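G., before I forget:
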Amino acid sequence: MKTFFGKFSLRAKLMAIPLAATLGFLVVIVSNQAVVKKVREHLSVIEGRYIPMMEAGPRIAGEFDRLKRALQDAVSAQDEEALEATRQIHDRLLKAADEIAPVVDGPGLSVLKEAIRTYYARAFDVSRRLMAGETGTGVVDAITVMQQKEKLASASLAKVTSFDRHHLNEAFASVRSVQARAAGTSFWVGVVSTALVVGFGFAVSRGLLLSLSAFSSGFARFGAGDLKYRVPVTGSDELGQIASQANQMAGQIEELMLELRKKGESLALLNRELESFSYSVAHDLRAPLRAMQGFSKNILEDHAEVLPAEAARQLERIVVASRKMGQLVDGLLSLSQINRKEIVKSGIDLSAYAQDILDGFRDEASPRKASVTVEPNCLAQGDPRLMHVVLTNLLGNAWKFTGKQAEARIEFGRTSKDGQTVFFVRDNGAGFDMRYADKLFGTFQRLNTEDEYAGTGIGLATVQRVIHRHGGTIWAESELGRGTTFFFTLAEGATK
Amino acid sequence: MKNKTILLVEDNRDDEEFTVRAFRKSRVKNELVVARDGAEALDYLFCTGAYANRNPGDLPQLVLLDLKLPKVDGHEVLRRIRADARTALLPVIILTSSKEESDLVKGYSSGANSYIVKPVDTEQFSACIQQLGLYWLVLNEAVPLPHGSGEST
């Protein structure tokens, strides 16, 4: 059944349903038309033949009775004229008999007419003889003959009409049988076409539903990553084609995924190698740096009295430069550590972090006029240590770049953009030219000279990595001399 | 009163010199013994190899242990110190350049008493060594040793 149906296209199968129904109806209509035609024929025969005869029979009989009575009346009244007048009745009788000529087969009618004529001739003769006063055996014999002829005529008439009653029954029987046959045909055609429609409909819709549920579960498995799964292909119709195309697609996706995974793995390996390389480079740079700085300092300490002023100055420069390089190396190390560190999220209070960090700045720094605003209860899901690094860097920048402001203002708070919570760190410090905004987060990128503001150019790169690793974004708005605002989001749902 | 020694396990001559200098400038007057790799450190502690003639009962008061060492690395040295009943309670301070979380966790798990990351800046390094000496050799009460031969100043 499955394979048989599978050979046909879905369109053909769907078309077959109305086709079967239409065919059934057509058969019923045509056969009904034939039946109606046949019934009509039969009915018109009955109408044209038997009904006139049924009407003519009693009329002929009536005329016949009238003729007999008129003859008797004329004899009783001894009326010659009335006797002559019976000729007209006789003619009318014959004429009435002629009326049924079209509906009577065979010699019945001429027999009837002959019998009437014979009877009338005898009756007329008997009547005239009776009127002439003739009596005796001659008349009695004539009357007997006349009576015989009358019976003969009555018998003929009865025969003509009773013969046709039989035919009428036959006609009705035939109409009835045609009708019965037609009803039977209609019934069976109806049953067969309904069965076909229902059967086709059931088979097609069952196939459709099975295929759809197979697609649904198959696609769900594809979606869940089970690309080895194959949707069962039943038949070669459109659904079968969809199934095999889907399977083919899954195969291709699986291949691509495999390729991608391989590439991803090699990339990850490469990245790990690079990370560990840069880590060990940065790490191993520390010791020689310490040596450069330390020995320079030792010379300055131990041999200050014999050292020319210029030599001392240059040694100082070496100390400063190596300290600077040490900071860069430390920055690189922490950046690399942030990349490798696994993010462990928990509920954190960014407001508390911000307040702590800002309090720390106040303690360390020489007294500064700075107004600090921290919006309370900025809660989020994040890695506590890394988010602390983010706020330390952003607030540290704000503190640093407001250093030359007479009245520094630093603000940490929360706003929302497109329905997402956005945290911000705002200051009224030096600001930067928005034309260079794209360089802001680059490693070792600085928008100020070292002389103006100290820094390594690693802080914001670190901040951006942390935010990205949390699934968030970071951006800045700034105006030279008016201050900067850093905005950042965390992953959807990480803020409450 | 004979001061007990401090064992410095350090392969970098520069760092060794800075450490020695920092101790010299501090109040710590204990003799500083330097082992240049993990194997030498173990030889010194367990009186084997070049140190076969040393008195095994004469343990240092403190071990400053680098992690990246030739031959036997710092983690292994620490593991062996803790595994041996004679040295199990010896104060060991890891003094390294590594800020790696894995090193920190491994160090403390193996029973390091302290973990210090060497600052790049020598001023900070020197301050760090002086504080360390002050704390471990002066403030901190040492474990009473069975021989009872040494006491901190």
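The interface with chain B takes residues 283, 286-291, 293-295, 297-298, 322-323, 326-327, 329-330, 333-334, 337, 341 of chain A (CB under 8 Å). The two ends of chain A are 59 Å apart (CA to CA).

More on Monday.
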